[in-house]
Design the sequence.
């Protein structure tokens, strides 16, 4: 499956860069991964850049108010999208103000990692690890306990 990871900005802190690189490398064993960093001076510009980067791929927006998944549920969701769906998904992590209401209204899914607001850097690492964990579940491998 093709997973397009779109982030507003880059991981800035050292731990987040290390975490991103590690889980991106692991995730590439299971999926075709594309990474796009976008920017903008305003929330509206950031969301427009996310929309353009996603193109025609169904867009999953990371949003604290979104649907929460267990890891097996996330694995099943990705399997469904990969096998029964279009075979690609775009995931977008927003900037300091999050995504605009307009972008949220047009999204395929809002995905919440929990009710806490995470810093942008940490959210990036959690998303990648969650996608990697889901991939190992789908593959029947023992990483997930
Ligand atoms: C600092 S947060 C922005 C918070 C913003 N006030 C909002 O409500 O979206 C930066 C980005 O990290 C991601 N993020 C942070 N916490 C999250 C959570 N609990 N679930 C999903 N995504 C989260 C979102 O993509 C968000 O746009």
Sequence:
């Amino acid at each position: 499956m093709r997973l397009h990871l779109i982030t507003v900005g880059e991981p800035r802190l050292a731990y987040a860069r290390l975490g991103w690189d590690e889980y991106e490398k692991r995730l590439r064993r299971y999926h075709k991964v594309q990474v796009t960093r976008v920017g903008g001076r305003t929330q509206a510009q950031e969301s427009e850049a996310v929309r353009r980067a996603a193109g025609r791929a169904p867009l999953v927006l990371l949003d604290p108010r979104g649907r929460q998944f267990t890891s097996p549920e996330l694995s099943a969701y990705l399997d469904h999208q990969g096998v029964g769906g279009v075979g690609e998904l775009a995931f977008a992590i927003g900037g300091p103000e999050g995504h605009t209401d307009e972008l949220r209204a047009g999204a395929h899914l809002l995905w919440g990692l929990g009710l806490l607001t995470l810093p942008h850097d940490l959210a990036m690492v959690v998303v990648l690890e969650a996608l990697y964990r889901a991939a190992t579940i789908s593959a029947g491998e023992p990483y997930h306990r």
Summary: The longest strand covers residues 59-67.
